[in-house]
Amino acid sequence: MSRFLGSSITKKITMALLGLFLILFLPVHLGINFLLLKSDPEPFNKAAHFMATFWLIKGFEVLLLASFLLHIFYGIFLQIQNWLARGKQYKITNYSQTSFFSKFMIWTGLIIFIFLIIHFMNFYFIKIGWVQGDPENFYGVAHQLFKIPAYIILYIFSFLILGFHLAHAFWSAFQTLGWNTTVLSLVFKGLGTLFAILIPLGFTIIPLVIFFTK
Amino acid sequence: MNITLKIWRQKNEHAKGKFVTYKLDDVSKEMTFLEMLDYLNEKLIKEGNDPVAFDSDCREGICGMCGLYINGRPNGPKKGVTACQLSMSVFKDGDTITVEPWRAKAFPVIKDLIVNRNAFDKIIQVGGYISVTTGSAPEANSIPVKKENAERAFDSGICIGCGACVAACKNASAMLFIGAKVSQLALLPQGRVEAKERVKTMVAKMDELGFGNCSNTGACEAECPKEIKLTNIARLNREFYKANLS
Amino acid sequence: MVTLNSKIPEGPLAEKWSNHKASIKLVNPANKKKLDIIVVGAGASGASAAATLAELGYNVKVYCFQDSSRRAHSIASQGGINATKNYKNDGDSDYRLFYDMIKGGDFRAREANVYRLAEISNNVIDQYVAQGVPFAREYSGYLTTRSFGGVQVSRTFYAQGQTGQQCTLAAYQALMRQINAGKAKMFTRRDVLDLVVINGKARGIITRNLITGEIERHSAHAVVFATGGYGTVYYLSTLAINSNVTAAMAAFRKGALFANPSMAQIHPTCIPVLNEYQSKLTLMSESLRNDGRVWVPKKKGDKRPANEIPEEERDYYLERRYPAFGNLVPRDVASRAAKERCDAGYGVGETGLSVYLDFKDAINIQGKETIAGKYGNLFDLYLKITGINPYKEPMRIYPAAHYTMGGLWVDYNLMTTIPGLYAIGEANFSDHGSNRLGASSLLQCSADGYFILPVTIGDYLADEIKTPKISTDTPEFEKAEKAVKEKLNKLLSVKGTQTVTSFHKRLGHILWSYSGMIKNENGLKKAFKLVSELKEEFWKNVKIPGGLNELNHELEKASRVADFFDVAKLIITDALDRKESCGAHFREEYQTEEGEPKRDDKNYSYVSAWEYTGEDKPPKLNKEELKFKYVKVTERSYK
Predict the structure, then answer these.
(1) Are B134 and C554 inside 8 Å of each other by CB?
(2) What pLDDT, in 10s, does the model give residues C207-259?
(3) Cα distance from B98 to chain C (closest Cα, Å)?
(4) Nearest CA to B80 among B222, B189, B215, B185?
(5) ipTM higher than 0.95?
(6) Could you say which of 2.60.120.40, 1.10.150.130, 1.10.1060.10, 3.30.565.10 is the CATH number of the domain covering B118-245?
(7) Which residues of chain B are within 8 Å of residue C141 when distances are taken between CB atoms?
(8) What is the pTM of this model?
């Protein structure tokens, strides 16, 4: 059993499962974010309140956080192993023939992680009381932040990077889970690309609409 | 055709290597890449210099002995060829070509462009076979094999063990090599019996030997001279957790 | 003086092998553990023998010059492997395969050996299928076959055009399994430079570690050479560039006889020489002649592109000359016919040294998909090398040096004239007479390795069970090691001006010109003189950089080329002696009016087994008379 748990493939499968779990969370979050476009803050704040207080969601939150941390930990761990496996570096490397985004998963991942910290400082840490703010009015916090051009640029950049990460991650997770044949591979690649475009697009439209209309 | 070569020279495993530049001014487009290196070596020998050491044997792309990292890609810019099948016609007059050995911790350099690929044998040793003792085989047609499966097993079985997949992978992962062998044998009824134990031991050996982890970049598939498919890695993953969870 | 005893068992042909197995001595399992066996070469025959011997319980040590057993040149065998399963119900039988091989070899092989091969062929297929070789199958899931040159039944099992690769890997994997079990030990990147004979028995080898340059001693109770053929003596050949005859020549110098050295097969379907830099020639499987039609233009020097030459202006010369077998005549016949057309000025391509192999009709009748299923990877290979797409234009092909029927003389037990030294696979003179039929090579390698040697070696080792481990600390090892070092140092000390390869090229050119597809007395005599002179020049003027104690490819090559000179002289000597034409050995002086080989059964129905008499001294001829009891010796006609 220890051979199984310690195996590189087990680690990869864990990464994939955690990744897919995190991916599931994205549409939910996006759905709630769309409530920001309403002029009435009530629905969004209610939703946020519900998410913050309902016991099932709270349990889910812990799981999600753990998944994030484990995903990041394994990501870094595997990456270090991978660097070591090369030994001496090539003088010239030419990546032309391969999936472009897959080469930079560690970097896109780390950028997303940094964004997450900022995001947490703005919302989650307020909720748990680490940072000053009104936990009952995230709508207001969001609208305030979306008036700052620099923040919007950072926000959009982060989601662009998330798109890059997803572009490889979605298909890759299914490949790691072994759900790939020549046909399935095309399906997952297509779905992955679609997902990697729609999710960041949805997230980035919201601040832009708020900035230019309100 | 004038060609400038930047070739990795390293006296032995422990020596510190460096790139050395050579100029060749009458390279024919009809040469293969290795014939061009032969030509360089003939020149070096005549000038009293040490020729460039590189591995090659069959020179028809099937033994898997040759393998060079040419201009940032295993076996150069052409798809689906070994170094011995790479024609110099893919290069232009005045080109500079950088030639490096396979780089992987599991494949230490022996001399110049020659690396030690013993790790592949070690992986096969722990399970890359069907344990049938000579003489105990049943009549060949007593084990029907679906034509489609036999063909897929063949497509996986054509791996030449050259190591281009490891060389191409940014993680120096050997998953395509192992995936191809595991798939070939798992697709055949004869090989199913030992499928679980095989995949467990081979993957454990792979990890032990210091190959990297697969991150599904697809570089191995793109650079495999036999164009072995990434689906072999998916099947390897599948076989792996099936073996461990059932 | 050597006495040749082929040890052919008594009894009817079909019972000889079973009788023999039942009567030879055995070694019990407990004693096998105490016995060491050295296997040199790890291709289809070496790996299968080593794996099987290890399974039986012997301690096996395997040596090869490559970095892995999987690289051995058996891997390049393409077309298939023959067996008498008769799955096609086309009247095949052990006798028919036996007869085809005896006739294909132009009645210059031993009946008993060839019959045994036919008999074992089905076990070989069973073995490979069980090991996971993905042979071609019907939709029903059962195995399918195709036909090959020189036969009228369909008995060739295949895995596209990579049958050799699949079979060799199966044998390699079996060997890897035994290494894992601790029963076999692998020594890669080793050149075997000498054989050690103690009290008349083969007891060990001297190797050079190709990485460190260290000269090493290895001992065992018996030694098996599975070192392949010596076709690289022609420089350009279908063999791997490092294939060599060094181990076999070492055995020859230690007293093993070298049989039929002049029997070298020139394969008809190879990609022609394209330029002067070429380092090797690539084979296109003979199986292509199943569906491909060979032709040249009817008009001399017709330079039109192939597709513009109308049907009525094409000369399908094989179909014209040999209506019964057509494009499927044996290799030697097809090769000479191609050479004849080219020499007469009908050849195609820039050099005029090639003929067409055309799939147009096959594609029209069977469809592109079917043809791609059978030959897809061969077509791709051809396209890769030549840039010509065989689906659209005919291939251009020309004969090239390929397989050597000659090799170390062995008896029915596959033992050479040195007790304890065995030769298997292409390394022995074997079962192919003066011409090998397609898809018999993999069969013979595998049969020798899996099924024959592991049984027959017991007969010898049964008397060795009381012999303790062989020490390498003996005067014989000492002497052999010293001789090897001296030879290598001598090579290094020449410090001349010409590279090893330049000598090899010149040697190959001499042999190809005078001792290739067509030979004659004057040419052969001239060749002998030229080779002797070249050898002398080599030892005076070869330039080898680097030293002994390092990885030194030039030194490896030089040591191999040095032996090629000697085998070349042996080839020519043998060709001169055989004043007849048979199979691949074609002496211009001895041909029928239609230009077919004319055998002289009265005077030459023997195996020539040459005995070493000293450096550069003429070898002594020993004759093993061939008696044919079960076939009628006839003119070998494919008309």
Answers:
(1) no
(2) 999 999 999 999 999 999 999 999 999 999 999 999 999 999 999 999 999 99
(3) 22
(4) B222
(5) yes
(6) 1.10.1060.10
(7) 144-147
(8) 0.95
